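User:
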Amino acid sequence: MRVVVVFGGNSVEHEISIISAFQVIEALKTKYEVFPVYISKSNKFYYSNKVNNIEEFKNHKYSKKEIVEFVNKDGFYIKGRKKIKFDLILPIVHGKGVEDGSVLAYFRFKGFDIIGDNLSFYAASQNKKFSKMLLSELGIDNVEYLTISRGEIIKEVDFPVILKPNNLGSSVGIKIAKNYKELERYSREIFKLDNLILAEKYLENSREFNIAVLNNNGVIETSKIEEVIKDEIYSYEDKYLSGNKKKGMNYTQKSNFEIEEDIKNEIENKSKIIYKELGASGVIRIDFLYKDKLYVNEINAIPGSYAYYLWDEKYDFLELLDIVIKESKRSLFFLNKEKTTLSENLIFPGLNNY
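Assistant: Predicted structure:
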């Protein structure tokens, strides 16, 4: 099978996407023929057969001759060269403007087979406010929060609060405000990243847990649970700028611990409910906080490297990607068989020829 891995894009999480993509590519190329297609920050597509690992990518300067054009559903063209055919697109994109369903929608609109089958899930998971509203409808607890818009004057805040860009992930821009002065200063910084801020009540001395979820042949499975070792918050720097920078999140420090059975069961059960009811696909990661009771912190639609470090007791990385590809192909089979017209001769029969 020939797989195109698309990564990058116009997002502040651009570099994180690159790290994740090359971890996935290294695993895939032991079994599949892989074509890394890079999306620049100006949203141009590039391909080069000279880029086979992250070190080569770092040193490669793409030229106009390597710009890719996706024309019809079984291949892409490189300017001045022949068409390259492929079977499936695997998106490894993070952040606003790409992970929120934008990339998926672009390729789906053009008729390409791309992993991921529910645009509404991507859009909702990227928008933290919408996620919280949907989880509340399911009876799942969120940390108490409010939102701050540009120019809005906030008069009553129970400090300290965690401030987050509403539509970003990877802990980009996250801050703790302990008074109004810090709230105003940090808000100005975050508004450079997003037009809406989520302000959550800071749960001091809370525990943080991560779990991944996937669909395997119709059965929703959960990974092992890991507890994050952190100080006040688990920051972007903690995730990506400490330790081995090439390896991404799987090299951040996690604890080996015995989790209480009731907390473990609650995390697993609520994760399966979220996956099913929100219409997730592929691998997602859900982050929980615990202080007296369990709260959902965030839902990650395309977690870095498909959160494979959470699956290492069940599957190796290639086995995990095989499951994702197999389930996607099954979903795409039925999606491609769905009708796009009610009748051959309904109102405008001539349009059936176009």
